[in-house]
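quick one before i forget lol
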Amino acid sequence: MMTEAKLFSLLRKYNQDHILDHYHALPPEGRRGFLQGSEGLDFDLTFSLYRDAVGAKKAPVAVGAIGPAPIITIPKDPAGEKDRLEACRTGETLLRENKVAVLIVAGGQGSRLGFDGPKGAFPISPIRNKTLFCLFCESLKAMSLRYGARIPLVVMTSEQNDRETRAYFESCRYFGLDRHDVFFFQQGMLPSISPEGKLILKDTTHFFTNPDGHGGSLKGIHDSGLLKQLTARGITQLFYCQVDNPLVKMVDPVFLGYHRMAGSEMSTKVVRRKNVEEKVGVYVTVDGKEAILEYSDLDGRHMQAVDADGKILYWGGNTAIHILDLSFIERLNLHGFALPYHRAARPVEALGSGGSVTKMEGWKFETFVFDAIPLATKTCCMEVVREEEFSPVKNGDGVDSPYTARLAMSNLFGRWLEEAGIEVPPGILVEISPLFATDKEQFVSRLNGKVPSVEEDTYFGE
């Protein structure tokens, strides 16, 4: 619990006299609110990161020697197909033995999409307008039924959307999942700080804070006690994805199988970059260790590099879909959280002197989940088809928007129909519920030889 004495000691330690003056000017009720709003914030970590960031600005750290990474490509011959089949069988065994849980990172709001609420509650499917959460949960339920498995779902929320997300799941009756297999924890928050090393006020009783990044999910699942609970249930693998990609192939047995067969502690799915200009994290090696580098950390020489055949050399684009061993996540938290923090500058509207709102620059510190890859003893990377598994919803319109995601879903389902011998006229939308089929093979099997006519927007439901 944050006490007045503890707060004063922290503020004096880091020369935050402006915050002390502000606190003393508050009425008793405001002081209580300020102490409550300060609870759980790690000021020591923030100022340690600030000192490191100031030092890094003076002496930039080189990225290291970059090279191509080994990636399991989409099978092109019988040997590749044989390996894929073995991986599928291995992954299916993991599912049947109840060794797999799912973590969905869902701390964001839908504000960039013009939606007032958690991003996971955004309606996205082409015909029925099912939400992102609904699609994920229906897929998880379908896979649970398919393999006779109990697959726990863990959802990382944020301070901003935790209450609303929990209420949404409750109102939707957990989308048919067993509520005792659905868990939530909040993403960690860190105080933002000015370039001069001063804490920033959001309002009279709250510091300006920022989420600790999607890498914080690996800290939060540990600190919440959920990692220990999953381990006690016999879970060994955690399937990780972010809430903004409706094409995620939930607990993909092939991916699980490759992960297990490689003895990997952390595995990644990638897609081929569209072109050398695509702004996406890239799977590479850095000083011989597999890693993902943000496009902003790769210079033009590497981003535009091609091989002898003129094809993109560093082609593995990050999909933010991973599998992690629970024992690896435990090790990342064994002696304090192991992932590095990154500094980002952003404009903020803060409470200035005299209670006025002031625009200024704020520094935030966050972690990236893919920074765990170089820390793993063994890793694995698997190529998937972009059109089948990757269409994130990040922007209100244009690329990576609801329009492009709905179109990608409809086109994928349309190809399933064509595989079943069903003609889909141009302009027709198609939606297939995960509870009807989770892949084209199951879809064809469910049709049982029937060839329905598709002359208008068509939905195949559970």
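fyi The radius of gyration is 24 Å.
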